[in-house]
Amino acid sequence: MKKWILTLTLLLLLPVQAFAANPTDDHLSFPDDFRIDTQIVNLPHDQAVLVDIANNRIEIVNLNTSMPLWNNTYDRIFSYNVLTSSNKLVLIVQHKQSLKKITLSTAQATSGKILSTVTLPAHLYQVVSGNGSQLAWSAPTSTSKEQIVVQSSKQLSVYQAPWKQASLTTTPTIQQTFNYENANPTQVKMFSHYVVAQYNGGSLMQTQNVFYIWDTAHPNVKAKTVTVPWNLDADFQLQSNELIVYTTNIKGNPLGANTDKPFPIYARYNLATGQRVYEMIRTLADRDEKWTTDYNNNQVFLIDNSEQKNYLYDRNGKEIWQMPQTSENTVSKFIKYENGILYMIVENLDHQFSIVKQPLL
C-alpha cells in the first residue's frame, strides 16, 4: 500500500474564482489498486463508506480528517446497507467459503466497531457461490420481515429468516419480452417488499439496460419494467418508494450517441406503478465525448465532457452550480455537497488520489 500525501488543492479541476481560499491539507492511504469508480455512501458526522466492488474492499472514512476508521477485504461483497436511524452498516459477504452477515456501528464514537457476525446457512451460500448470482439484503420494516433476494441467470428468489428455502420465486422473461440475443443479470436491490433487478440486454452489437420491478406483496401481479435508451450505462438506487436511475453514455458503441437526440441522465420512478415521476434530459454537444452522472447525498452530479462543464443539481433537478472544466489531467468522483462544502475524490495522471474538501463561494 502506498502512502499518498494528499494535498487538498483543486488540481486544476475547477476555476479558482468558484472557491473560497485556503483549503486545508489532509492525509489518507489509498491502496495501489484503488479505483476512482468506488461506490460511496454518505454517513452522518461527515463520514462515508467507500465500497470497491471490483476488489471486494470496503472502508469507513472520516471526511474531516481523511482518516480511515475501519476497513476490510472479503472474497466477495454482495450487499451493503446503511441503516441511518439505528447507526448501523449491514454487510452480506462471502468470506472463507461461507456467507456472512456482518453488522457494524456507524455511530460517531464507535464507527467501525463490529456489533455482530452471523454465518448464514450453507445451502444459501451454495446458491450464490461461483455462479455469477447477485444478492441483496433488506432490513425488516413494519410491513415486511428481514429478507434476502438472489438474482440468478434465470430466477429471482426471496428468502426470509431462518433462510431455509425461498419463500417466493419468479422467472423474469427479459430476453423473450424485448427480443434480445441475451439478457445478463447485473444487479439486484430490495426495499421493503419491492425487488428491483437490473439486466443488460444485447442485440446487434448494442446494449440496453432494463429494470424489473417486482412487488413481492403481490407476487402474482405482473411486474413493471423500466428501460433505458440503447448504449447507455446505468446505475440505480432505491429511496423510499422510488427507483432512481442515472446514466453514462457508452462512447462510440457502436457509432456514439446521437447529438440530435436528448438522453435521460437522471430519472425517478414510482415503485408501485413503474411510472416516471421526474426526468432530466440532455443532448450531447459532441458524439465523441462522454457524460458521467452520479447520485449521492440526494444530489445529482454531472460531468459533461462535450461541453467541458460540471454541474450539480438537487434531487428535483434544481441547479446548485455549474462551472467549466479547466483540466484534462484529472478524473473526479463526487462525494457530496453540504453546508457550502464540496467533497470529491480526485485522481491525477500518476494515479494519485486526493480527497478535495473545498468551500464554494
Automatic annotation (TrEMBL):
Position of the signal peptide: 1-20
Domain of life from the UniProt record: Bacteria
InterPro entries in UniProt: Quinoprotein_ADH-like_sf
Keywords, alphabetical: Signal
SUPFAM superfamilies in UniProt: Quinoprotein alcohol dehydrogenase-like
Listed name of the protein: Uncharacterized protein
Species of origin: Paenibacillus kyungheensis
